[in-house]
Design brief:
Number of helices of chain B: 0
Oligomer: heterodimer
Largest interface: A-B, 23 and 17 residues
Order of helices and strands of chain B: EEEEEEEEEEE
Strand content of chain B: over 45%
Strand content of chain A: over 45%
Low-confidence stretches of chain A: none
Radius of gyration of chain B: 13 Å
Largest sheet of chain A: 7 strands, mixed
Largest sheet of chain B: 7 strands, mixed
Distance between the termini of chain A: 36 Å
Number of strands of chain A: 11
Helix content of chain A: under 10%
Structural class of chain A: mainly beta
Shape of chain A: globular
Structural class of chain B: mainly beta
Chain lengths: ~110, ~120
């Protein structure tokens, strides 16, 4: 199985300031069809996970444009341009290039 | 609007059994590939089981920790997904989420059903 790692595991941020989360996979996530199936999910306290981004950088419908994804191969980044109070929660990267899909350990974002 | 509603969770003793259900609406369930993903208390997400649509063969897949003990199934006439869990262990304690797999993503999630395995 592909192992996903994330750094940092905890990220205290100031409201209005940017935040960045890194995700690394144990092998390349480039699929044989040429796509890279790396997603990001947000889990607010007490809520189920919510998909944010797919294929590295495409936002799901309704996701604010302050969330952006980038990267290639084995290294990926989620950025929040200006953190708002509703962004508090745990963020997971997930690979869907190879089954079984696997998740990173999660990065907790909270307010300083 | 896609809706997934889990039910059937609860407290069970080690070695016991439980069946989770997931009622789906807002999309053509029979065409969907579905999965169960679990989250132990205070921990991360772990994929548990997957079932393809019947038109794609209805193939099932299981994570190593549950293989041989859990069975995923579907009833397309009832738009319902199931997870039969036997020989439960304390380490199976978790919130179990029903998810739809679409375009290489788990794009929809239920609210989850808590399963507690304890004596």
């Amino acid at each position: 199985d592909i192992v996903m790692t994330q750094t940092p595991l905890s990220s205290p941020v100031t409201l209005g300031q940017p935040a960045s989360i890194s995700c690394r996979s144990s092998q390349s996530l480039v699929h044989s069809d040429g796509n890279t199936y790396l997603s990001w999910l947000q889990q607010r306290p007490g809520q189920p996970p919510r998909p944010l981004i797919y294929k590295i950088s495409d936002r799901f419908s309704g996701v604010p444009d302050r969330f952006s994804g980038s990267g290639a191969g084995t290294d990926f980044t989620l950025k929040i341009s200006r953190v708002e109070a509703e962004d508090v929660g745990v963020y997971y990267c997930m690979q869907a290039t190879q089954f079984p899909f696997t998740f990173g350990p999660g990065t907790k974002v909270d307010i300083k | 609007e896609v809706q997934l509603v889990e039910s059937g969770g609860g407290l069970v003793k080690p070695g016991g059994s439980l069946r989770l259900s997931c009622a789906a609406s807002g999309f053509t369930f029979s065409y969907a590939w579905m999965s169960w993903v679990r989250q132990a208390p205070g921990k991360g997400l772990e994929w548990v089981a997957r079932i393809k649509s019947k038109t794609d063969g209805g193939t099932t897949y299981y994570a190593a920790p549950v293989k041989g003990r859990f069975t995923i199934s579907r009833d397309d006439s009832k738009n319902t997904l199931y997870l039969q869990m036997n020989s439960l262990k304390t380490e199976d304690t978790a919130v179990y989420y029903c998810t739809r797999e679409y375009n290489w993503n788990f794009d929809s999630w239920g609210q989850g059903s808590l399963v507690t395995v304890s004596s």
